[in-house]
Structures are given as C-alpha cells and as structure tokens.
C-alpha cells in the first residue's frame, strides 16, 4: 500500500501576525547569525505586540550536532513553552525538530504547535519528516525520519530570503533540484509525490538562475521558496536516494555545505542510476521524463537522460559552484584516507535505501573517485 500525506499547514507569503495572536510563550530556535543580525525580530516583534514572551536558543551552527541538540533539550524543558518556532535555514529547523523530538520523551507535547519559518529556499525541512543531525566525533550525519518530526505550520515568506548571499542561494537551490530529482526516481515514488516533484523542477528551471543573479527579484525568490517546499513534500513521502546518502557522508567529513555536496555528486549518481556506461536501466526512462518536462528530450531515452545530466552540470557552472570534490578544497591525501569510510557511511545512510538502483560499497567508492577528479562518461 502506498500513502501520501501533508500534515503541515502551509502559509504562503506570510501569516506570522495571525499566529502571534495564538501563541504566548515561545521557544525560538535559530542560528547565531540570524539572532545577532536582528532578523529574529520578524517573530519577536510580533510576539511582543501581543504581550507574548519568548526564549531564543541561538546556539545552532551549520549542520547541527548532538551536543547542540542536548543543550537545546535542557533549555526547552526548563522553559516549558506553549509553542516552538524554528527560524532559519535547514540547520536551525532540523535542530529545533531534534530538540522537540528528544524533549518529548520527558515533556507533554499536547497543545504545543511547532512552527517552521525557513529563511533559505533549500531543505524543505519545514514540511519534511526528516531532521539531519551530525555526530562530530564520528564525522557522520544521521537523518532522523519520523512522522512526529513534521511541523504543524510552515510560513513561506520569501521576503526573508532576499538577504541570502548568492553562494548560499546556489547551494540551497541545487539541494531543491536534487530533492525533486531523487524523489521522482525513488523506489517509493507515487503519482502524488511525482506531482510535487515535477512542479518543483519546473519552478527551479524558471527561477533558480534569476534568484542567483538578482537577489532582490521577489518573484524568483518566492518561486524558489515554493519549489523548496514542494520538493520537501515530494521527498518526505517518497524518500531520497544515493545522492543524499553520499552527500551526507561527504559533508560530514569535509564540512562541504549540504547543497554543494549534492551538486558535485549529482551528475555521477544520475549517470550510475541510468546505467549510462553499460545497459540502460528503467531509471533512465524516468530521467527522460524529467527531460521532457524541461523541454530537453530527444528521440532516444539515452540522449534524453544524458541531456538531463548535462543540465545538472550546467547549473553547477552557471551558479559558480565547484564541480569536483577536489575543487571544493579536499586534497588527494585527505580524500584517499576518507573515501572508504565515506562509502560505508553512505551505504548505511537511510536515504540510500530508496535509491532506484541497488549498489555496493565498492560502487559507491568508485563514484566518489569519479566525483573527486571529475570523470564523467
Ligand atoms: N530536514 C531535511 O529534510 C533536510 C533536507 C536537506 C538538508 N537538510 C540539512 O539542512 C542543513 C542545511 O540547511 P541550509 O542549506 O538551509 O543551510 P543553513 O541552515 O546551514 O544556512 C546556511 C547559511 O545561511 C545563513 N542564512 C540563513 N538564512 C539567511 C538569510 N535569510 N539571510 C542571510 N543569511 C542566511 C545561515 O546563517 C548560514 O550561515 C544541513 O545540515 C542539511 O544536512 C535537512
Ligand atoms: Fe538535501
């Protein structure tokens, strides 16, 4: 039996004024930059106007870790809020989700809504069952996947993303594209997750480069915010794939931003999934369907799939992103020491389980080697 659900109420273009009337004692989770730059006033000013109170937890760093989550659990239990607001990129939202998840073991969560306000257009965490937490000691990222991690409300206000610097717009935009493509070819894809993924891909084609080149273009920003959320709905239901499994291991080991790691790997993983170098797989046909959606199809499935792979590569170039692991700043010696462990971590990652093509640790290691030096078929 297949299932599809969207538990989160999505408020498009704003909605915080109305929400602030219903919540009074808020635990606000964000990162240091968002707190110190005063951007959290988007939430706190509205709460103060309604006579509400809040505590800000701003210890979140990129790729939140277990220590940060534990600290947050201690603070939320002490504060006993009547609502939790996660405000920031995927790192802040994932940290907030994990804090609530672990605190709920000791705290009655009834009547405590979880409101997610994304300020990057990338992870789709505001509507997903996923939260990615890093174990810094083991240098591994663990995706928690639970229905209880689904936020109650997501506020999609693209005005908040106008200040996102171009490099983060690029990284997060490629994360959206990867979510949609992996959701579309996942073993658990349905007509319903396809619908969300297809729309996300169309929105990325229309808006990503505009948002990168013209940060103040509100239409492009809202388009990418909606794309991010739709891709989140798609993969929250269908799961992701090997690209995310490998990106988690690569990002945890070498601190490469999540979307950038996805972008480097995507052409290689797509080529592997499609069987480009030997016998074409059924996944090649799925990539060809995406090509048709983007107007890139040709008369052969192989050529259509290759056109999509080249498009992914072209995005990386136009967004001025590194196209190899080496170009992302990893030395040959560091890479050689890490590659086997990364392949094992990618194999064990929850995301890899829904990849359309089965793979071995050796095959994953080979893919990392190709992506290190930049050898595309
Ligand atoms: N839960 C999920 O479903 C899911 C999916 C994909 C990725 N992730 C995880 O999410 C994390 C990455 O999230 P991200 O890509 O959104 O990056 P991020 O949250 O780490 O933010 C990147 C940088 O952008 C800054 N920033 C955020 N909003 C800004 C704004 N409006 N203006 C200026 N600067 C701003 C942040 O301060 C930070 O320095 C990773 O840990 C990744 O593994 C989670
Ligand atoms: Fe992602």
Would you give an account of this structure?
With 377 residues, the protein is an alpha/beta fold. The chain has helices at 16-20, 32-36, 41-49, 66-79, 90-103, 166-185, 191-213, 218-238, 242-254, 258-274, 282-293, 301-318, 332-348, 361-373, and strands spanning 9-12, 25-31, 53-60, 83-88, 114-118, 130-135, 140-145, 153-156. The protein has 2 domains: 9-161, Rossmann fold (3-Layer(aba) Sandwich); 166-373, Dehydroquinate synthase-like, alpha domain, CATH 1.20.1090.10. Strands 1-8-5-4-2-3 form a 6-stranded parallel β-sheet, sandwiched between helices. The longest helix has 23 residues, at 191-213. The protein is globular and about 65 Å long. The mean pLDDT is 96. Nicotinamide-adenine-dinucleotide binds next to helix 2, helix 5, strand 6, helix 6 and helix 10. The site of fe (ii) ion has 6 residues, from helix 6 and helix 10.
What is shown here, in short?
By secondary structure, the protein is an alpha/beta fold. It is built from 14 helices and 8 strands. The radius of gyration is 20 Å and the shape is globular.
Query: Which class of secondary structure composition applies to the elements?
Result: alpha/beta
CATH class category name of the largest domain: Mainly Alpha
CATH homologous superfamily label of the largest domain:
Dehydroquinate synthase-like - alpha domain
Strand count, sense and barrel status of the largest sheet are: 6 strands, parallel
Unreliable residue stretches? none
